[in-house]
Design goal:
The structure holds 3 protein chains of 3 kinds.
Chain A (H helix, E strand, L loop, with lengths): L1 H28 L6 H18 L4 H22 L9 H23 L15 E4 L2 E4 H23 L1 H11 L1 H6 L4 H27 L5 H16 L5 H20 L6 H13 L12
Antiparallel strand pairs in A: 1-2
Chain B lengths: L4 E10 L2 E7 L2 E2 L4 E5 L6 H9 L6 E6 L2 E2 L5 H6 L2 E3 L12 H13 L13 H13 L15 H14 L4 E5 L7 H12 L6 E5 L3 H7 L2 E6 L2 E6 L1 H6 L1 H8 L6
Parallel strand pairs in B: 4-9, 4-10, 7-8, 8-9
Antiparallel strand pairs in B: 1-2, 1-3, 1-5, 5-6, 10-11
Chain C lengths: L5 H10 L5 H16 L4 H21 L10 H16 L6 H24 L3 H21 L1 H4 L24 H22 L2 H11 L1 H6 L4 H27 L9 H14 L5 H20 L4 H15 L1 H7 L1 H10 L1 H7 L1
Helix pairs in contact in C: 2-8, 3-8, 3-11, 3-12, 3-13, 4-5, 4-6, 4-11, 5-6, 5-11, 9-11, 12-13
Classes of the chains: A mainly alpha, B alpha/beta, C mainly alpha.
Chain lengths: 286, 250, 338
């Protein structure tokens, strides 16, 4: 059972790294970016190409996945997304759906529609025993990397000036602007980093989640659940939501295989009935 | 005589901020009661608490003796409580005819009718036209609300609350933002309100307040500061201090 | 005393509800295809079904302002109910099965409406998406009943009303679907021009104010969501009955996304948008899929992005000269001007 817990935590942390960019984007600009998964997919395919085709070592490909996704995110944000910020939610939804469709079709065209795999280095394969608990090496790596990332994010948010500006802008954009904070720049940078993290998550997740052109569509609901259940006012909310979802999904598929996938949806429905604005909504009940 | 409207130790917190602080307001039946206070005192919050848009952190709201603290906002309208908004809250794409028609239909119980066509019930039309005439909106009744001049929109805002035939009416700064030449219509409409309707008025315009109100409550920092007849309140040095900023501890 | 008599005001309000000459033209044109395009009945049936599906989305999106990413849930549900009713011979006559499927979809809509009402726009997107995914999973899991990934096959559709066999040229299918669409359209038209419909427009425009004049916003939204779910379910059932097949793809997100596009192309909030959009979309799809069969989603995506960037309002500005021409044609307005 502890193995399940361990696997669930790994899955959850991976989800967190994938989804935290979306959470911050939503909290910051109230922008629903359904195309977030496309950046994750980009990172994943970058790694696949680097490792499988160009022989780059797996570890070296990870930062590159981050950078490429961050760059793509930055370019798209400055050129396309800016025009859509002030539009009603319906338009944002239509716009990002359009982007996802284009991304999926484009990747399908270039890389083919079958699932791709990446050759993990030998020392990352297999598992070892720790006090009788089976610990997958790769999953351990994921937990370590994602854990460090989460810590880094938390430190940046709470200790750096950029973090303070970001938190201010999330709290109240107009006041932040009034204080002289360059919200546009904060957002461009945040969007880029969020996309980069998604790309990194996509790369790390090839082994655990699989990768094919339909990835953004398949996992859109998971990211949305993390963000809705976890709320957008902090990092801890989505973090806990991701863990909940990860453990729930893995445990569900193991213990109740026939209904495994429903565990996530059930959790989502139950949470939304109980707390419509997410588990950690800042606004008190009306 | 039961009070038309009453709050009992009403409190509302937003995180660490106490927007409404232990307010026990009493509004007599048929009164013309004004609620005044400096900006940010929490006057609109009180209106929101009274109408059910906000839930109080503690305390109760009583309408004609009945506890309505847990009653939903739209139900309070049925019970006879209506309000206007400080910033016009109208239906931009509907015409005044449709807007008032909606309120009247709703009140008469036809709001849920999905089979009849709008405009087929004579009694509703009669009442709607009467209200529009009363407020001088008959000549624009077919125009989209969004294209109406601000003064007309403000009149529509008040007419809409009146169309609900409330027994208690809450007016949130009815003259706010209205240009000089259109103010007269607003003031006349407020003065012409039926005598049996209890009115709680929030206003900054002191001329309107003193010509209209028979009782004034002053709200400062979410708490009731001074209450009494207009003449008393006008003479009270503490009120002058609050408004002119010459507070004792400044 | 007022210069406006009750009668003239009544007359004026009812103007909206009276049939515009173009509407009559539209339906005459639609029905005339029975005789004018006998070879195209198969694709016309698909257009009609898509139009009905889009009409159901217009009810919640255009009239109540609810953005749904999972409207296909009701379409698929209705489709599978109709399929199962037919396959396991629970209800033999198709029209009866159609009604039952519609009611079943309405029930599902009713139940899920409470989730949809809570929370923000984002929660709504998620919940609607989630319901569609859950249904797809359910249909997938219980594959011994539903056929799973292969779809529901071997459905035998009995003759309509016991008389009219479903032929392979789609004639019966077309008359059937067009008839159903017309009746449901009439009903929807009646509803949106009623006090209930007016209150929906108010709720969409300003829910705060609507509630402040005594309208129970939630109850209205539940009602229209239930109705729209029923319409979507009937559209799905029609597809199953006219094709004797139902597939998991009916629940796909792609279906819900395509539907949004159909409605955006045609325009929301005037009931005809879904129908016009369906015609344009299907014609486009037919044309583009011969050019690029596999990558057609790319063009859909591009179209969506372009429409949003250009701005939906600007699109309606381009049609302004057409609309003023239409207004001049309007014999109802002519009477009012005299």
């Amino acid at each position: 059972m502890l193995t399940i817990l361990f696997d669930g935590i790994a899955y959850g942390m991976l989800l967190f790294v994938l989804a935290c960019g979306l959470a911050v984007t939503l909290g910051l600009m109230n922008f629903v970016n359904l195309a977030h998964g496309a950046f994750a997919m980009a990172g994943g395919y970058v790694t696949v190409v680097l490792v499988n085709n160009l022989g780059v070592p797996f570890f070296a490909s990870l930062p590159l996945a981050f950078i490429v996704s961050a760059l793509i995110g930055f370019v798209f944000e400055r050129s396309l997304y800016v025009h859509v910020y002030r539009k009603p939610h319906l338009d944002q939804v239509l716009f990002t759906i359009g982007l996802v469709f284009m991304a999926v079709a484009a990747v399908d065209y270039v890389m083919g529609s079958s699932q791709v795999y990446v050759r993990l280095p030998d020392y990352l394969q297999g598992r070892f025993e720790v006090f009788g608990v089976g610990v997958g090496r790769y999953r351990l790596l994921i937990i370590v990397i994602c854990g460090l990332l989460t810590l880094a994010l938390q430190l940046i948010l709470s200790r750096t000036r950029f973090g303070a500006r970001l938190r201010a802008a999330v709290d109240d954009e107009r006041v932040a602007r009034g204080l002289g904070i360059n919200v546009n720049r904060v957002f461009a940078l945040t969007f880029a980093v969020g996309s980069g993290l998604a790309g990194l998550g996509g790369a790390l997740g090839i082994e655990m989640l699989g990768l094919d052109p339909a990835f953004p569509l398949k996992f859109m609901i998971y990211f949305l659940i993390v963000v809705t259940v976890g709320g957008t006012s902090s990092i801890t909310g989505p973090f806990i939501a991701s863990l909940l979802l990860g453990i729930g999904d893995v445990a569900g598929k193991y213990y109740v295989p026939k209904l495994g996938a429903f565990v996530i949806y059930t959790i989502m429905i139950v949470v939304l009935i109980w707390r419509p604005h997410g588990l950690f909504a800042r606004t008190a009940a009306r | 005589m039961p009070l038309a409207l009453e709050t009992v130790s009403l409190q509302r917190r937003f995180g660490g901020i106490v927007a409404t602080n232990d307010v026990s307001l009493k509004v007599e039946k048929g009164a013309r009661h004004a609620l005044i206070g400096p900006n940010g005192a929490g006057k609109t919050t009180i209106i929101n608490l009274l109408t059910g848009v906000l839930r109080p952190t503690s305390g109760r709201v009583l309408l004609e003796g009945e506890d309505i603290t847990a009653v939903k906002a739209h139900r309070r309208v049925e019970l006879g409580l209506a309000r206007t908004f400080q910033i016009n809250q109208l239906f931009a794409d509907l015409t005044p005819l449709e807007t008032i028609g909606l309120a009247v239909s709703e009140r008469l119980g036809f709001g849920n009718d999905w089979w009849r066509l709008v405009g087929s019930k004579g009694e509703v039309i009669d009442e709607v036209v009467h209200i529009l005439d009363q407020f001088g909106l008959a000549d624009v009744m077919d125009a989209r609300t969004a294209v109406l001049p601000y003064g007309k929109q403000r009149l529509l805002e008040i007419a809409l609350a009146i169309a609900c035939k409330p027994r208690v009416l809450l007016l949130d700064e009815p003259a706010a933002g209205v240009p000089e030449h259109e103010r007269h219509d607003i003031l006349a409409a407020v003065a012409a309100l039926p005598k049996d309707v209890t009115v709680l008025l929030i206003e900054h315009d002191m001329d309107l307040v003193f010509s209209f109100a028979d009782r004034i409550s002053v709200l400062v920092n979410g708490a009731l500061f001074v209450e009494g007849k207009p003449a008393e309140v006008a003479r009270d040095p503490r009120v002058k201090a609050v408004y002119l900023g010459e507070a004792a501890d400044a | 005393m007022s210069a406006h008599s009750t009668k003239t005001v009544s007359h004026h309000l009812a103007t909206r509800a009276r049939w515009h000459p173009l509407e009559i033209l539209f339906w005459l044109g639609a029905f005339s295809t029975i005789w004018l395009l006998p070879g195209k009945h198969l694709i016309l049936t698909e257009i009609v079904i898509l139009g009905l599906f889009a009409l159901s989305l217009d009810l919640i999106l255009g009239y109540a302002g609810i953005i749904s990413l999972g409207h296909a849930a009701f379409f698929g549900f209705g489709a599978y109910v109709a399929g199962l009713l037919g396959k396991y011979e629970i209800i033999g006559e198709p029209f009866l099965a159609l009604i039952v499927s519609g009611l079943a979809a309405s029930a599902l809509g009713f139940v899920s409406s409470f989730l949809v009402l809570r929370g923000s726009d984002l929660t709504r997107l998620m919940v609607t998406l989630g319901v569609a995914l859950v249904l797809r999973e359910l249909a997938n899991r219980y594959s011994d009943i539903t056929g799973g990934a292969d779809g529901l096959q071997g459905i035998v559709i009995n003759p309509l009303f016991g008389q009219f066999r479903f032929d392979m040229f789609g004639h019966t299918s077309f008359y059937y679907s067009l008839g159903v669409l017309f009746v449901l359209f009439l009903l929807a038209r009646r509803i949106v021009n009623s006090p209930f419909g007016l209150s929906l427009r108010a709720v969409k425009g300003n829910p705060l104010r609507a509630s402040a004049i005594g309208i129970s916003v939630n109850r209205r939204l539940v009602a229209v969501y239930t109705l729209a779910a029923g319409y979507a379910g009937i559209a799905g059932a029609l597809l199953t009955q006219t094709q004797a097949f139902a597939s998991l793809a009916y629940f796909d997100f792609d279906r819900s996304a395509d539907l949004l596009l159909v409605l955006i192309i045609g325009g929301t909030g005037y009931l005809y948008g879904g129908l016009i959009g369906a015609v344009i979309f299907k014609v486009m799809q037919d044309y583009l899929s011969t050019l690029t069969p596999q990558y057609w989603p790319f063009w859909i995506g591009l179209l969506l992005v372009v429409i949003v960037l250009v701005g939906r309002e600007r699109m309606t500005n381009w049609t302004a000269p057409i609309r003023s021409f239409i207004d001049r044609l309007d014999w109802r307005m002519r009477a009012a001007r005299e």
